[in-house]
UniProtKB/TrEMBL annotation:
HAMAP family to which the protein is assigned, alphabetical: UPF0301
GO cellular component, one term: cytosol
Superkingdom field: Bacteria
Family annotation (NCBIfam families): PRK00228.1-1 (NF001266)
Family, as annotated: Belongs to the UPF0301 (AlgH) family.
Protein name: UPF0301 protein Lysil_1632
Length: 192
């Protein structure tokens, strides 16, 4: 049974974190991250607009999972962040149960177990999913400080943006949900 990730009253969980144009840190420049967990102990998220150099077919082959679905094999694995780049995360919709799933809200879940990848490969997995290697994390108060420093803007998570908007358009599209044109935004802030 998927477990809910605990959140506090000021939690940014299930929000999209959007890097402002002035954020020059190469790890986070022009990124959009879904905040999956945020509480007094810090925050964890998955970058949702950076493709890695790996295709899903290559990842499945590495873990000895086979699929005949050529379209699935050609999906890019995302570079989910600099922390634990060897660890896989599957962000998906649906209510199916997998071994290590956490409900994020808005019909989303995050799964870190192999069984969801096996289900995707066999065609019985979630209808929509993003596979990422690595995650982003912030220590206690760090994300709040970076937001105060105007390094990031936030917007509620949007499943259509996560699953249907092309990767290269997600940064602008996410900010567009607030009516912000990032290209026109002043470059006066940002350091992560």
């Amino acid at each position: 049974m998927p477990r809910d990730i605990p959140t506090g009253p000021n939690s940014l969980a299930n929000q999209l974190l959007i890097a402002v144009p002035a954020l020059e840190d190469p790890t986070f420049c022009r990124t959009v991250a879904l905040i999956c967990q945020h509480d007094q102990n810090g925050a964890m998220g998955i970058v949702v607009n950076r493709p890695s150099d790996m295709l899903l077919g290559e990842l499945l082959q590495q873990i000895q999972v086979t699929t005949g679905d050529e379209i699935l094999r050609m999906h890019h694995v995302l570079a989910g962040g600099p922390v634990h780049p060897e660890r896989g995360f599957v962000l998906h919709d649906g209510k199916q149960d997998w071994d290590s799933s956490f409900t994020l809200g808005n019909g989303l879940a995050l799964t870190t177990s192999r069984d969801v990848l096996e289900s995707l490969a066999s065609g019985t997995g979630p209808e929509r999913a993003l596979v990422a290697l690595g995650c982003a994390s912030w220590g206690p108060g760090q994300l709040e400080q970076e937001i105060t420093e105007n390094s990031w803007i936030t917007v509620p998570a949007d499943n259509e943006l996560l699953f249907t908007t092309p990767l290269e358009s997600r940064w602008q599209a996410a900010a567009g949900r607030l009516g912000v044109d990032l290209i026109q935004m002043a470059g006066y802030s940002g350091r992560a």
